[in-house]
Write a structure and sequence with these properties.
Strand content: over 45%
Structural class: mainly beta
Oligomer: single chain
Shape: elongated
Number of strands: 23
Distance between the termini: 120 Å
Largest sheet: 5 strands, mixed
Number of helices: 1
Radius of gyration: 41 Å
Helix content: 10-25%
Length: 350
């Protein structure tokens, strides 16, 4: 019985041996892989740039901005590394991140930037620079900024200038310009001496466009010389040095041998305004810079007082004249009065 029993045990052992060996090998394999996996995890090094916080979107050209980004240590070890921020070609700064704890986030800030002198759109990039990084695909984030310039100004005072009659009806007029790179709406103020102060609104003036502005007409002029000031009033203007234009006007009573001659734009036309002491024959010629007559308005008799001739800026053939300087010849009786005028591009439909 003992022998038989021993044989049975032996037989059972022999039959179970392969399965036990397989389980032993499998157990060893799992333990080895677990150790290897643990070692792999311990050796895994990876930091990433999650997002650029600032600057992004629109930036005013006068703003002081502290660039910043969010980084993440995805690895299993604490690491130290460099993070770089670039903006266009004018900003390139690095910051050291020390002892960044595994699986944690950190906000990285860079030296402040206030050099936004070049308007336009620029690429912003932020990247981690870890030498032993095992995954460089997530190192960099890219965004963009647009540098905003808000700047309008007064470029010319067209009227009143020189000399006007004390009873002359004058439409004060100026030209303004949008030097910025976004559309602007603002007020324009005209001050003449201490007796005239008016405001006109300009709406939606596109970047790099100019616009003529006409103010309410005036005819009750005090005798003497008066300062004429035109200024733009734009709350967010970033450059106020070009807001104001200053001139002067002398007011007197017109005598028999004195005629005042003014010109100013009105929409797409040009207004030629003058005062006659008495009824007289008037004709008008407009010449180009070569002296050629491009427009001839035949003579006709006009009564005494303030008169005006509106030129539609077209030549004798009805063609719109090119932008530039022209010579206006006003013939009154036996006298000829000459004045240079500039035809400039305008923004219509205001």
């Amino acid at each position: 019985m003992n022998i038989i029993l021993h044989k049975q045990k032996y037989s059972l052992f022999v039959n179970l041996a392969p399965a036990m060996l397989f389980l032993s090998i499998l157990s060893g394999y799992c333990q080895d892989n677990a150790q290897k996996s643990s070692k792999d995890i311990d050796a895994f090094v990876d930091v990433e740039c999650i997002r650029i916080i600032r600057p992004v979107g629109e930036i005013e050209s006068t703003a002081i901005v502290t660039p910043s980004c969010l980084v993440h240590n995805r690895g299993s070890e604490n690491v130290s590394y460099t993070v770089r921020m670039k903006i266009g070609t004018f900003y390139n700064q690095t910051v050291q991140v020390l002892d960044h704890i595994s699986d944690s986030f950190r906000l990285v800030t860079f030296p402040a930037c206030s050099i936004w002198v070049i308007r336009g759109t620029y690429i912003v990039s932020c990247s981690t620079e870890l030498t032993k990084d095992q995954n460089t695909n997530n190192d960099k984030q890219i965004d963009s900024i647009k540098i905003i310039v808000e700047d309008v100004g007064c470029t010319d005072i067209y009227a009143p200038t020189d000399t006007v009659d004390s009873t002359q009806l004058v439409v004060p007029s100026v030209r303004v310009y949008n030097y910025g790179n976004i559309t602007a709406s603002f007020n324009v103020r005209m001050i003449i001496g201490s007796f005239y102060n008016k405001i006109v609104a300009v709406s939606s003036l596109a970047p790099r466009n100019n616009h003529p502005v006409n103010f309410p007409a005036y005819s009750n002029w005090p005798i003497g010389t008066h300062i004429v000031t035109c200024s733009t009033e734009f709350t967010t203007d970033m450059n106020r040095s070009n807001n104001k234009k200053i001139g002067s006007v002398t007011v007197r009573r017109i005598s028999a041998d004195t005629i005042n001659f003014m010109s100013f734009p009105k929409g797409s036309d040009y207004v030629l305004q003058f005062s006659l002491y008495q009824s007289n024959r008037v004709s008008l010629k407009i010449r180009n810079v070569s002296g050629e007559i491009i427009k001839n308005i035949p003579s006709h008799i006009l009564p005494a007082g303030v008169q005006q001739i509106i030129w539609n800026c077209r030549d004798s053939n009805g063609n719109r004249v090119a932008f530039g300087v022209y010579l206006v010849e006003l013939n009154i009786g036996q006298k000829t009065y000459r004045k240079r005028i500039a035809i400039l591009p305008i923004k219509e439909n205001y």
